[in-house]
Amino acid sequence: MAEYPLRFSVALDTGTAANAAEAIALYAALASTVAEDFIAPGFVVGPHPALRSSTIWIHDLNGRGDPERVVTFVTRCAELFGLEGKWGFQWANTCSEPLLDAFGGGALVLNLATGEVVDAVHTDAWLPVRLDDDAAGDAARQR
């Protein structure tokens, strides 16, 4: 039976080492409120040895991830720490077998100050539209 992992790995600079520690504590509090048989809140948060102490590492857990919950968490951190500017990440929807229509992904850009998604793309929706656009354009050119 095929498995469909969703993978991502991204950093968020919280501004200070104290903010990073608070963000990790916030994640731990959120994770403790989720049923034990469910993988935390759809991602993992912690320090990364190659990153500054003010930066947290957000990633999926063994192919289980939820980009929407990441956005909710990052938006909360942005509110708590007064973060501004744009932040974004991308993810991959993969498959353990070479099945048709089993792969995809996405990316988004978030305005940290407002919590609004500035732009997003989901390839499972993007590709069919682009293929239809090309087909319509080809048909028009053939007339």
Q: What's the helix and strand layout?
A:
Layout: E1 6-7, E2 9-13, H1 17-32, E3 44-46, E4 55-59, H2 67-81, E5 86-93, E6 104-111, E7 117-122, H3 123-142
Antiparallel strand pairs: 1-5, 2-4, 3-4, 5-6, 6-7
Helix content: 25-40%
> pLDDT below 50 for ≥5 consecutive residues: which ranges?
none
Shape: globular
Cα-to-Cα separation, first versus last residue? 46 Å
What is the strand arrangement across the widest sheet?
1-5-6-7
Give the tally of structural domains: 1
What is the radius of gyration?
A: 18 Å
What percent strand?
Answer: 25-35%
Tell me the structural class: alpha+beta
* Mean pLDDT value: 90
What does this structure look like?
The chain is of the alpha+beta class. It has one domain (6-142). 36% of the residues lie in helices and 26% in strands. It is built from three helices and seven strands. It has helices at 17-32, 67-81, 123-142; strands at residues 6-7, 9-13, 44-46, 55-59, 86-93, 104-111, 117-122. Strands 1-5-6-7 form a four-stranded antiparallel sheet. The longest helix is centred in the last third of the chain and has 20 residues, at 123-142. The mean pLDDT is 90.
Please supply descriptive tags for the structure shown above.
7 strands, four-stranded antiparallel β-sheet, 143 residues, 36% helix, globular, 3 helices, alpha+beta, three-stranded antiparallel β-sheet, 26% strand
Give the structure's gist in a few sentences.
This protein has 143 residues and is an alpha+beta fold. Helix content is 36%, strand content 26%. The chain has one domain (6-142).
